[in-house]
Amino acid sequence: MGRICPEIRREKVDKQNGRGWHRLLRASACTWAGLRAAWVNEAAFREEALAALVFLPLGLWLGENGVERALLAGSVLAILLVELLNSAIEAVVDRIGPERHELSGRAKDLGSAAVACAIALACLVWVCVLLL
């Protein structure tokens, strides 16, 4: 498995991100590399991203005003955000070593619980906005 944005990792700390548009372009490249890695390696992210393709436009259409649209769409994006963080935690834990350890298991379980909370939040927002 290749490294993500290896050219950035090799530079000195003071030149790591560059400035202005150059920094933005380099950061964007790393962002896309991270999204691609999540898509390729994480089934849960793929499933949630496909669901987001349905629910984001639906939320923007069903919301009656800007606040409702933001709540509906934002709650869906929150699931993707938390899933990306969970995947990052899992990758770091797996990088440390394959052996079982209580703290490694706890870290992965906490990440999974965070995703479940994000899904519950989205469900709550959708119910409150659309049904109450």
The level 1 CATH classification of the largest domain is: Mainly Alpha
Q: Into which percentage range does the β-strand content fall?
A: under 5%
Q: How many domains would you count in the coordinates?
A: 2
Distance between the termini: 48 Å
- Supply the CATH architecture of the largest domain: Orthogonal Bundle
Number of strands: 0
Write the layout of secondary structure elements.
Elements lengths: L5 H5 L9 H22 L1 H20 L3 H31 L5 H30 L1
Short description:
The chain crosses the membrane at residues 70-93, 113-131. The protein starts with 5 loop residues before the first helix and ends with a helix. Helix content is 82%, strand content 0%.
Task: Outline the structure in words.
The model has no long low-confidence stretch (mean pLDDT about 90). This protein has about 130 residues and is mostly helical. Helix 4 (about 65-95) packs antiparallel against helix 5 (about 100-130). The longest helix is centred in the middle third of the chain and has 31 residues, at about 65-95. The protein has helices at about 5-10, 20-40, 45-60, 65-95, 100-130. It is built from five helices and no strands. The protein folds into two domains: about 1-40; about 45-130, Helix Hairpins (Orthogonal Bundle), CATH 1.10.287. It is an enzyme of class 2 (transferase). Pfam families: DAGK_prokar.
